[in-house]
Amino acid sequence: MLNASSDPILMEVKDQIQPVTADLLRSIFVTEAEVPVEFALPQDVHQKEYLSNGFMKAWNGPSHEVYSPVALAQPDGSYARKLIGTYPVCTEKEALEALDAAVAAYDNGRGAWPTMGVDGRIKCVERFTQKIIAQKDIVVKLIMWEIGKSYADSVKEFDRTVEYIYATIDALKNLDRQSSRFEIEQGIVAQVRRSPLGVVLCMGPFNYPLNETFTTLIPALIMGNTILFKPPKHGTLLFYPLLEAFRDSFPEGVVNTIYGRGHAIVPALMQSGKVNVLTLIGASKVADELKKLHPKVNRLRAILGLDAKNAAIITQHADLKLAVEETVLGALSFNGQRCTALKIAFVHRSKVDAFLELLTQAVSKLKYGMPWEKGVSLTPLPEPHKPAYLNECIEDAQAHGAKVVNPGGGTAFESFVYPAILYPVNEKMKLYREEQFGPIIPVVAFDDLEEPIQYLIESTHGQQVSVFSQYASEIASLIDPLVNQVSRVNINCQCQRGPDAFPFTGRKDSAEGTLSVVDALRSFSIRSLVATKFNENNKQLLNQIVSEEQSNFLSTKFIF
Predict the structure, then answer these.
(1) Among 135, 167, 277, 447, which residue is least crowded by beta carbons within 10 Å?
(2) Rounded CA separation 455/442 (Å)
(3) Which domains does the chain have, with CATH numbers?
(4) pLDDT by residue (tens digit) across 295-334?
């Protein structure tokens, strides 16, 4: 399969690895009675209402059945994905009504929410946060059951989301403090603050349905915009326990939810021209199509997190043990279903055999099983079509000369696919360019560093890259060309989004706009100022407005 490694110990380790078989994978799927009580949903979640214009509106129309990626063993020996609930399949009519509610609540910038003082909006968000914390248990379980994320990682996602909200509040306080004074330049006195943009259409991803959705929704909301929110296709039900918190924490029409088939309801929203900001974390093709539907594209602001094909470059001077540890984390955390995942590895030819052996060993040690199991790393996949697509990618690679390196790599049963390491990967294969968004690690051997650099230059993606080397001069030679191809160069570590204080964006087709705790506040607002000539009459006018607190915008109030 590979050239013999120079290290016989590594070959011996590989020979001792038990191949993963379909029978082994079958054994991880249990009966419903075997699901631990503490991780079971108390009951199915059948959502028969949605939030629009400040009210929970009843829905008696068609509903979409939500099946968990966790398939349960049946008495007849078959396996079936567990039905965990339903949610409304609303129509264009309900979507446009929700849009009109958001438009009315914004009221051309004159609504209660966009004109509210920053301290007032902060109090509303703080109230909302306390209410969602009370729903933590059910939301965490729904994350686990809806998308197959491990229970431990589902808890982390919820906790990180709460931390992000509080960090956003602190960042807005700092931003407002910096604006709580007048500036005098060339005889003009002015106060510069940030104002909202209007109606925001917010659509999040399934892989981090709560956290990544809220990294756009919360900053958009707290800056005074009104929200039209469509939950992701996988990871919809987990928002249901939060709808009353939205309703009770914000003025009517400020937050509105829309449900239904995206292709059936979203085009009309964009064609209306009433959406001021599109925020989408998903596919670049979808984003392109939606933007084109807007009648006044120049008025539309887009904050987008899109496709990525992040590469790892393992040089001849890399610490292989470290490179493998970070590659496994980067490529297989949440089964590789992350935009920041490492999706292709370029390894210097002199190191490739040893790298593959160590990588095979590391992958074999990952625990696979059901999401509630302690220490589990690999879990079932939420997208029903994903196992077939991943198999298609593997077969395509094999047809063009690659082999599955690790024993049992690519073996699938029901919704579970065991990770596959593929080598040697070349430009003829789908995996060379396509974002697989799943547990496959394509490995490419290179002789000259110019090869991976050229790959990134030619790529339509430009989010991040990871560089592994112990030579400062070698790292430096890669940093300068790569920072102009991607938005983040990671040295001797995996690609990642955090910390949330750092900017998160991408070049080319990978993103539009920048997100971080502070950048997001700026992305969903615009700098506005009130200015006048600095003379005695105007000074008295400004002092009166400020001292009598006649304006929420024109104010020197200092928020602690």
Answers:
(1) 447
(2) 14
(3) 8-29+308-508 (3.40.309.10), 86-305 (3.40.605.10)
(4) 999 999 999 999 999 999 999 999 999 999 999 999 999 9
The H helix count followed by the E strand count for the chain is: 19, 25
Residue type (1 letter), 511: A
Q: Which residues are 189's β-sheet partners? A: 184, 532
Q: Is the dihedral of CA 540, 541, 546, 548 positive or negative?
A: positive
Model pLDDT, residue 11: 54
Mean pLDDT of 377-394: 98
Local confidence band at 15 (pLDDT 50, 70, 90 cut-offs): low
Structure tokens at 192: 């510069």
* Among candidate residues 443, 491, 446, 441, the one with its CA nearest the CA of residue 348: 446
**Which tokens is 346 given?**
């370029």
**Per-residue model confidence as pLDDT tens digits over 123-155:** 999 999 999 999 999 999 999 999 999 999 999
- Count of C-beta atoms within a 10 Å radius of residue 543: 10
Q: Are strands 511-512 and 301-305 parallel, antiparallel or unpaired?
A: antiparallel
The string of DSSP codes covering 429-441 is SHHHHS---SSEE
β-strand partners of 303: 279
Q: What is the token pair recorded at 410?
A: 């690519």
Asked whether the beta carbons of 208 and 88 are under 8 A apart, the reply is no
